[in-house]
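Appendix B. One record, verbatim.
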Amino acid sequence: MNDQNNRNLKDLLLSLETYYQKGLWSSFKNVVGKIRSEFNILHRMNTDLENENKQLKSQINKEVQNSRELNKKLKTAYQHYKSSIDIFYKFKHNIEIVQKMRDLEELPGILEDIKHSQRLPALELILDRDIFSGYVPENISLYANNYLQELRTRIQVHTEIRFYHGPSETIDCIEALAPSVDVQKLQRIKKGSCFLYTITDKYEPERILGIFSLFDFDPNRYSIDKATDFLEHFCYILGCTIKDVWEHQKLNREKVVDGLTGAYNREYLDRHAPRILDFAQRKKFPVSLLFIDLDGFKPINDTYGHRAGDSILMQVVRVIKEIIRKHDIFVRLGGDEFVILIADAGYKEACRFRERVTNSIKSISVADCIGQEADLTVSASIGVAEYKLGQTVDDLVKEADKEMYNVKREKK
């Protein structure tokens, strides 16, 4: 009702009262009709207002509902965003750990950190035996390349890309992909989900280096509708880092390993022996060095050729490697001369070890090494020197070399 309607109605009511007092019934009836007409107008206006009000209420309710749904979506989007940020920082942390790796011996610790960070019941890294044998610790599984190729083929039945994510029960080679997982846990994994990533050489994509597998008991952890961008990127970085570290170690090893026998060379001795001598000087524990020179080696070369001599040298290295300890340093200086640096052993212990080395070399059959009958034998003259404070590696080698010549003269 607007102001004009109010004024009209007031005027009509005043006229109605006047006509009633004066008895002007004809005018009174006329005013009553006008009042009725005015009320009809007001009723229609009121009805329109009510309808408009209902429409507004309905619109407001819709807006409120939309607002609630929008809030829910915003909360969900925020939770997804927060979850994505958490996942991003987890993988960022994992990538930083991986990229700090300088030696493949660090792999087990890195994998354990990843497993803990991702809250996984199990993860596995399987690598190519031909490439990584001798570079990774024993608890990293190594498979022949043809078997890795077979596993990749069986995984790729379910996907056209280099990784699989989905229910574990569809993969028929879970046991092979999880060799270190116990049987009880494996049964639960088979009912869960997994992410299987084929590590390939970044320069030769068809060359498989290994398979990295992540397992969860939750069937929805690695479901098809979940994004895998962070995980794919992390696995790619992991594969590239493993390959880069391996190449670096391989180059370093080639610098310090004798190409013929596989024993370390003089450079290796010069790199690592000073550290042992320094530690021995500070901690006051004994260190001894054996200088080995083969007897009767020249006649083998002269009679049967250098290939036969090479075979003898390789066999000498094999028998000595079988008896030295892991932390001893064994090197080929050149020709038929070798050195063994023994930590935590004085002169007497070193002399006893000399006897073992001497007997091992005497046991070598020249005939077996060269593949034909031979009336020649191989033995060794070995000098021993115990480290004295202030000596250098060269001093120790020269002292043991001098004693070796004394031993050789005594034999003659």
